Amino acid sequence: xxxxxxxxxxxxxxxxxxxxxxxxxxxxxxxxxxxxxxxxxxxxxxxxxxxxxxxxxxxxxxxxxxxxxxxxxxxxxxxxxxxxxxxxxxxxxxxxxxxxxxxxxxxxxxxxxxxxxxxxxxxxxxxxxxxxxxxxxxxxxxxxxxxxxxxxxxxxxxxxxxxxxxxxxxxxxxxxxxxxxxxxxxxx
Length: 188
Ligand code: GRF
Prior knowledge:
This protein is of the alpha/beta class and 188 residues long.
């Protein structure tokens, strides 16, 4: 049984899909959820699912090994960023080499980097007149949205699409593929 640690800042719909995917699995389980936003929806999910949740303090996150030690206490095999808005500090990246992944709601390297999250991404994609968007699941390094790509999946954008309809199409791809990739990486 492998242990997954999820970092999230928001609603947690990706976290929920991963929890659901591993509900009766003997391959993996979501052992702990770490969140930097008091009141975030993902904390309600953790409580409802009976999964330990940890509220991250920025200073400790950036300048100590507090959360590395916590991840090790949970025997974490894979760190999954599911809508986590802070950059991962170098000590954490080094502590879990090749074991931290992120999902980005666009086709990196375009529409990535600081400030590119949520509706900002889809607005930029529409404004750029793109004919497709999608998701990028990638390894995490010390820069935003910059690590080696694991998977990209695409959706078509038509002239009738809005940032909201693109967000809906992209979220469907996230929910379909993120749990699959997590499971594939656990067995590596
Ligand atoms: C998703 O769009 C994901 O691609 C991005 O943050 C969002 C998280 O959404 N990294 P949710 O909190 O999982 O619903």
